[in-house]
Amino acid sequence: MRSSRRIRTAVVATAAAAALTGVVGCGALDKALDCVQTADAIATSVNKLQQAVSTAADDPTQLNEALDEIDTELGKLKDDTDNADLSKAVEDLDRGVDSVREAVNSGDATPDLSPVTDAAAEIGKVCTPG
């Protein structure tokens, strides 16, 4: 759980820093707001997925439920995000979730989450001004 908190904190902090230090016009303001909203949603998604994986042995249905919730959140993010870089990061996260779902459907109770965490880290890169 500690690593999921660190990921969430890092992603949200980076997005907040971008919102506070990188705003220089309407386009930058829109991107900063998109960053904060997207970073928070992605951090929440990653946290839910990590929790579901950690408890999959006790209740394997939670993993599929978490993946379904993440798919719903990602669908909303795709509709709400106007920034091309953020859209790409959301698509990367979607592909990561798909790979986790495929692994779970193949019987893997502890799938590799690195594609998901890598996509979450990409949000931090996109949202860092400079």
Short description:
It is built from five helices and no strands. It has helices at residues 2-21, 26-54, 60-80, 84-105, 114-127. It has 130 residues and is mostly helical.
Question: What does this molecule look like?
Answer:
- The chain is mainly alpha-helical.
- The chain contains five helices and no strands.
- The longest helix has 29 residues.
- The N and C termini lie far apart (31 Å).
- About 9% of the residues have low confidence.
Sheet bearing the most strands, described? none
Order of helices and strands: HHHHH
Which percent range describes the beta-strand content? under 5%
Total number of strands: 0
Termini, distance in Å?
31 Å
Radius of gyration: 15 Å
Given the helix and strand composition, which structural class is it?
A: mainly alpha
Low-confidence stretches: 14-25
The total of helices stands at 5
Per the principal axes of the C-alpha atoms, what is the gross shape? Answer: elongated
Layout: helices, strands, pairs:
Blueprint lengths: L1 H20 L4 H29 L5 H21 L3 H22 L8 H14 L3
Helix pairs in contact: 1-2, 1-5, 2-3, 2-5, 3-4, 4-5
Can you give keywords for this protein?
130 residues, mainly alpha, 5 helices
